[in-house]
């Protein structure tokens, strides 16, 4: 079994929604988002069930899930907590400025207090005040972080401001790699984590989404320099959320959590390459994907050391 990696957290935070719906505040720049003919109550029940089952499957794989309930009616995207906070080895937590006003209400003090109680937290750096200056950086949606080589990959968008990102990278000791990325229709990709995933020994990335050929080559070289296997995803696979995955440390080794739709889009060859390093863990979240995010967005990884006497 590969030894644990700082890239693959053993624990995650999830939010179980009670009033889920695709958020009209985010539809303008999120081309992955879809409307639904289903009644709102039916959507909410389906999303609640999908999170419940996903949490069960993750725990069955040996991953600790800290599951919080969201009973508010003004936070339709609460199921995606990775956008408003992130955690980092050494005891550091970041809180982020969010583009849509409705998403700013997702930030919760009880989640931060749980982290302080269960894990070693030295400091919490709160960037949310940058919202007053229209500077936004939506966490590990806006940035895909390589915790091993200390690189922060980010596609420019309304949700990813370079000034805010430079500030984060200075505080948290990451090298920024910023680029322009578009979907098959030429529309800018709203979040970096829908087009790439970085694991310990693998990476998935939609290289064709990166406009500049030189930057595309630089990113591919950087991802493979340490020996990672690079899985190049097509535009169709990106649209099926194949890039929106996260590597986690389970009981019997590392797993790659991704949606059932994403897993079905991978070719046999791609799956075989991935399975040399990770076990695929497909989770069925079709309702949640209507909101324009998938499994990676649903999981806020905990890269913190547990406190003695508290199970992670």
UniProtKB/TrEMBL annotation:
It comes from the Bacteria. Coiled coil: none annotated. Gene3D superfamilies: L-arginine/glycine Amidinotransferase, Chain A. Pfam families: DDAH_eukar. InterPro entries: Amdntrnsf_FN0238. This is Amidinotransferase. It comes from Novispirillum itersonii (Aquaspirillum itersonii).
């Amino acid at each position: 079994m590969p030894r644990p990696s700082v890239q693959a957290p053993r624990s995650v935070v999830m939010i179980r929604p009670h009033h889920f719906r695709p958020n009209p505040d985010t539809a303008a720049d999120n081309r992955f988002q879809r409307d639904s003919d289903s009644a709102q109550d039916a959507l909410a029940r389906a999303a609640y069930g999908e999170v419940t089952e996903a949490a069960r499957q993750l725990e069955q794989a040996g991953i600790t899930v800290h599951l919080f309930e969201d009973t508010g009616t003004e936070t339709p995207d609460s199921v995606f907590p990775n956008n408003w906070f992130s955690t980092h080895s050494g005891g550091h937590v970041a809180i982020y400025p969010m583009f849509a006003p409705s998403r700013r209400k997702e930030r919760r003090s009880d989640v931060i207090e749980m982290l302080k109680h269960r894990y070693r937290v030295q400091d919490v750096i709160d960037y949310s005040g940058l919202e007053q200056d229209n500077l936004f950086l939506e966490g590990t949606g806006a940035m895909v972080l390589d915790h091993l080589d200390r690189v922060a990959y980010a596609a420019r968008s309304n949700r990813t401001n370079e000034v805010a990102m430079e500030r984060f990278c200075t505080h948290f000791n990451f090298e920024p790699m910023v680029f322009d990325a578009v979907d098959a229709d030429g529309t800018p990709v709203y979040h970096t984590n829908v087009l790439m995933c970085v694991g310990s020994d693998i990476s998935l990335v939609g290289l064709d989404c990166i406009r500049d050929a030189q930057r595309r080559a630089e990113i591919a070289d950087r991802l493979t320099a340490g020996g990672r296997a690079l899985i190049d995803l097509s535009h169709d696979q990106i649209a099926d959320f194949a890039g929106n995955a996260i590597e986690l440390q389970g009981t019997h080794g590392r797993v790659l959590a991704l949606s059932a739709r994403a897993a079905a889009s991978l070719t046999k060859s791609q799956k075989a390459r991935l399975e040399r390093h990770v076990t695929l863990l497909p989770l069925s979240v079709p309702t949640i994907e209507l909101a324009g995010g998938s499994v990676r967005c649903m999981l806020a990884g905990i890269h913190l050391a547990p406190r003695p006497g508290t199970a992670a």
